[in-house]
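HOLO CASE FILE
Compound: 2-phosphoglycolic acid
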Amino acid sequence: MTARQPLALGNWKMNGDMVANEQLMSGLLESSAGLLSAGGLQAGFAVPAPYLFQAAVRLKGTGFLWGAQDCSDQPKGAFTGEVSTAMLQDFEVNFCLVGHSERRARHQETDAQIAAKLQALLSANILPVLCVGESLAQREAGQAAEVVCGQVKAALKGLSADQLTRLAVAYEPIWAIGTGKTASADDAQAMHAQIRGALAGLHPQVANQVRILYGGSVKASNSQELFAQPDIDGGLVGGASLDMADMSGILQAAHQRAGRLGLL
Ligand code: PGA
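Model generated. Tokens follow.
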């Protein structure tokens, strides 16, 4: 297996408050910061924008990353409610989700907007985590790979090989998000391999370096099996990332993967 550094990210979505965030972060620091010290894996949280300052203060110097859940494709100006990449830089944000299915669906984000946000993040030196995934109807119609690889290509076409190495992809089948249904490890691996193939179609020489995370009802109990797959380089975790014990277990599984890859 190629030794890509495992990456396990929590996506808090629109959850948390000052007190709960502090409890969650301090609990995870206590249980899991040691796993990060050898540098074999990366882990962090995508927090709601108002709590970026809290996350930056709490996590700086601990090894954990902090990130945003979305950003504007515009540098500044009359864009009420939006947050620019320069603002994210002010809080030393390490990564930012782009194109999460909840934003594609609720905010009608288009492939073109997602590509523009991704460019803005790359220019700001913030790791974009491009989220892609098919609906249940698309899967049942046998269109899953076509839809997912189409989203990947639409967001990434035109990037240089170097830029491709400075992002991660998260495969999140929509039917598995927040539903308790996870793609089987085999199905997830098959899609990850297809995504890697789509990346190879863009820049074959670096496709093997890009991390592809799985998301959709990842829990401590299924993370071991998922993270044992050759092309599942970690997870993007929603609901379970709000539970300290569950997230600690997921970080353990990512740590074990790092060990198997000889990264510790
Ligand atoms: P879930 O969410 O783990 O709650 O299914 C994953 C995500 O939407 O990133």
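CASE NOTES: The first strand starts at residue 7 and ends at 11. The chain has one domain: 7-260.
CLOSED: yes
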